[in-house]
User: Fold this.
Amino acid sequence: MSDFNPKIVAFVCNWCTYAGADLTGTSRMKYSPQVSIIRFPCTGRIDFMLLLKAFANGADGIIVSGCHPNDCHYSSGNFHARRRWIVFRGLLDFLGIDVRRVRFSWVSAAEGAKWAQLVNDTAEHVRQLGPFSGYHRLRGLGVG
Ligand code: FES
Assistant:
């Protein structure tokens, strides 16, 4: 499994984590290239069904990240996202998807190094879990 390069999809908010990821690049820090970033105005706008769609369409692991608590540009969007995440974990369990495939984090615009670390840790974690094999089941359920 050592040559397995997991596909990671990152759902991030525009104001903090996306800017932090941008800082990672402009600071020329290296991190796993296997991550695809999808930018949202706020983590509070992320429909968590999109995470299942990502799995159904080939993702092996997922990151959700936004502004730190009390830093959300829309006041409480990140708190809504955190609550959804708690509910979503139960759905992952129900669907037989290892919850360790999804990382929920806060990364600010000044935390380029933290973003690189988060992506690298997630990629390594998912590499150890192996490729996600439940996409047929998800598609059978109409997700995808
Ligand atoms: Fe970043 Fe709401 S604007 S989490």
